[in-house]
Amino acid sequence: MALTFFEIKSAAPKEKPFKLSDGDGLYLLVLPNGHKFWRFRYRFAGIEKMLALGPFPAVSLAEARIKRDAARKSLIEGVDPSVQKKLDRIAAETAARNTFGLVVAEFIANLEANGAAAATIAKNKWLLEDLAAPLSNRPIAEITAAEILDLLKRIEKSGRRETARRLRGIMGAVFRLAVVTLRAPGDPTHALQGALLRPNTKPRAAITDERKFGALLRAIDDFDGWPTIKAALKFAALTFARPGEVRGARREEILFEKSTWRIPAERTKTRKPHDVPLSRQALDVIHDMWPVSDDADLLFPSIRSASKPLSENALNASLRRLGFGPDEMTAHGFRATASTILNEREFNPDVIEAALAHQHPNEIRRVYNRAAYWKERVAMMQTWADLLDDFRKLPPANSRHSNKK
């Protein structure tokens, strides 16, 4: 006869364990200490077995019957429910070990093995290990789009819209790694497309007026700070290379016989080697710095150590000291200055793009550009350096130097 809740609740313990049957193999085991446990007795392959279904009242009578029926269904399908329970437990434990943090560590290791730049690795670690820390110990297969959105929205509300969008993108790469390695059923970040606010993009400040740029160049010439900073600012203006490439420039990269600065792939944003034609003025800067950096590999060593490059903030801080605020000019702004002025003077846009090392999405055209425009780039870089000398001679602008938007 089937049990009732009243019978189970009122079953008093005895000196020895006893059973209360509910039918179809399900029974309640009552121990002398008063504890009560659900058990399911069955036969599989001619052998009598027992399956523990949990304690009462944590597992109610109704829940115990559901578990019994599921076990009976497994028997009909030829599956031993005890073995299935063990496999389910192993699967759950395995899933618990396959956490988001574990897959993140593997993702970072893959980046390092593929030769990603140190800055890229550091940025991804900050996004995935610091900002996404609340998900680190979560089984990756259980993470939902809703909890990712909650994390991203909190970052977004702090004013870091672009950071939230970048985190969503890089988390998607982690989930795709988990999918292809059979550790997650899908990428929950895909459902979040369009769920985040657009970043408040603000272009890097750059002076694009020739008179005002001439004033900046004169200010750099008169700079009385550390000589490597002054030289690096001049070199950035002449080559319009990325600030990190300038700061990390090494003596071995300078090919004097070819008047070329050869930046290796591991130091470029595009992960492709980039050659920069050196004008006479750029070579003068290098020759002036050569004795200063004689005991170091770096062309523009740090103030504190010859073995370390100038800090990321060194160039921008020097521009501030010269009186050019963050809304007027940045170290990265030399690139925008050169691009704007050269385009306004009707230089070939493809030559300018090749000089800026902007990677064209078409691989064939990218290779063609690098091969076809070298002579044009050599001529343009010398013309640009001569223009900078001309800008220095221009009379000051009537208004206070400021960035022309």
Q: Would you write up a description of this structure?
A:
By secondary structure, the chain is α+β, with helices and mostly antiparallel strands. The protein has three domains: 91 residues, Integrase, DNA-binding domain (Double Stranded RNA Binding Domain); 93 residues, Tyrosine recombinase, N-terminal domain (DNA polymerase, domain 1), CATH 1.10.150; 184 residues, hpI Integrase, Chain A (Orthogonal Bundle), CATH 1.10.443.10. It is built from 16 helices and seven strands. The strands form two sheets. The protein has a four-stranded antiparallel beta sheet with strand order 1-2-3-4, covered by helices on one side. Strands 5-6-7 form a three-stranded antiparallel beta sheet. It is elongated. The C terminus is likely disordered.
At CATH level 3, the topology of the largest domain is hpI Integrase, Chain A
Describe the main β-sheet briefly: 4 strands, antiparallel
Count of spatially separate domains:
3
Name the CATH architecture of the largest domain. Orthogonal Bundle
- Estimate what percentage of residues fall within beta strands: 5-15%
Strand order of the largest sheet: 1-2-3-4
The helical percent reads 40-55%
The end-to-end distance, rounded to whole angstroms, is: 87 Å
CATH class of the largest domain: Mainly Alpha
Basic shape: elongated
Quickly count the helices: 16
Number of strands: 7
Radius of gyration equals 34 Å
What series of H and E elements makes up the topology? HEEEEHHHHHHHHHEEEHHHHHH
CATH-level-4 superfamily name of the largest domain: Intergrase catalytic core
